[in-house]
Write a structure and sequence with these properties.
Blueprint (H helix, E strand, L loop, with lengths): L2 H15 L1 E3 H7 L4 H13 L4 E3 L2 E3 L3 E2 L5 E2 L10 H4 L4 H12 L7 E4 L18 E4 L2 H7 L6 E3 L4 E3 L4 E3 L12 E6 L3 E3 L2 E4 L2 H11 L2 E7 L11 E4 L6 E4 L5 H8 L4 E4 L2
Parallel strand pairs: 6-7, 6-11, 7-8, 11-14, 14-16, 16-17
Antiparallel strand pairs: 1-3, 2-3, 4-5, 9-10, 12-13, 13-15
Helix pairs in contact: 1-3
Length: about 260
């Protein structure tokens, strides 16, 4: 693949999503890591993209007066309004079980997702400090007396109603928590996965700020083990799931030293 072909391929990925990770480029571009870095630097020097932590993004567009205007980004995957209806009963039970893991007065992080959202009704009265990137979770918690809600800065992705700060560390508050409650698009032998690499970069930022990683996933997520790996199973401390979990998947989790909680 010649330099011009590589550049066109990189720019086509950016036009689709607005951000591309360096890891994805290493997987898809026919060239060494050093070659890809040179391609990115050349495109950045020509104003075609902006180098950011973990990858590259499109430069801001401009308004008629010359002021910068960020391009609207889109995520791959099932939109939130469709996903929330899938396995609803199991997700509600998982959310309730996960909420029981919270201690009064502690700080936690809750990643955006249709399963993590189900924790919210059960957090009333715990006086938690909650860092979340989900506008749905903000809406569910904002009127709870005693619950303090924090959000990162970043771009709003309307399909999932989440705020993702993947471009700069400055977008994330200086926040550390004993627990991170996180969802996944799929779980397999390779680990916890998401459909879009933008989500991977954002969720890695959350993982790095938590002592304990608690994965909330209904059993159907183990039947579609494909996607971009967020972290290996061994990095997860606990999986909260439902009673449809089959033995082979339970063994896969337990073999990595991960505790399983079955929501009643």
């Amino acid at each position: 693949m010649h330099a011009t072909e590589r550049e066109q391929f990189i720019l086509s990925l950016l036009e689709t999503r607005g951000f591309v990770s360096f890891r994805e480029l290493e997987e898809k571009v026919d060239g060494s890591a050093a070659t890809i870095r040179r391609d990115l630097e050349r495109l950045a020097s020509n104003g075609r993209l902006v180098r950011v932590r973990g990858g590259a993004r499109l430069p801001p567009e401009t308004e008629d007066d010359g002021a910068p205007r960020e391009k609207e980004f889109h995520l791959q995957g099932v939109p939130f309004h469709e996903n929330i209806a899938l396995n609803r009963k199991q997700k509600e039970a998982i959310g309730a079980a996960a909420a029981r893991l919270c201690r009064p007065g502690e700080a936690v992080m809750i990643d955006g997702g249709s399963t993590t959202l189900q924790m919210c009704p059960h957090l009333q009265g715990l006086n938690l400090s909650v860092l979340t990137n989900s506008l749905h979770i903000v809406s569910a918690l904002i009127n709870q007396s005693g619950t303090r809600v924090l959000v990162p800065s970043g771009a709003v992705f309307p399909e999932q109603s989440i705020i993702l700060s993947v471009f700069e560390d400055a977008g994330m508050p200086q926040f550390h928590a004993p627990k991170l409650f996180i969802g996944a698009a799929a779980i397999g032998g390779g680990g916890m996965m998401q459909v879009d690499p933008v989500l991977v970069a954002a969720e890695r930022q959350l993982i790095e700020r938590a002592d304990e990683i608690i994965l909330l996933a209904d059993a159907s997520k183990f039947d579609a083990p494909s996607g971009h790996i967020v972290c290996p199973l061994a990095e997860i401390d606990m999986v909260v799931t439902d009673d449809r979990l089959v033995d082979k998947h339970a063994k896969m989790i337990e073999d990595e030293g991960v505790r399983i909680v079955i929501a009643p």
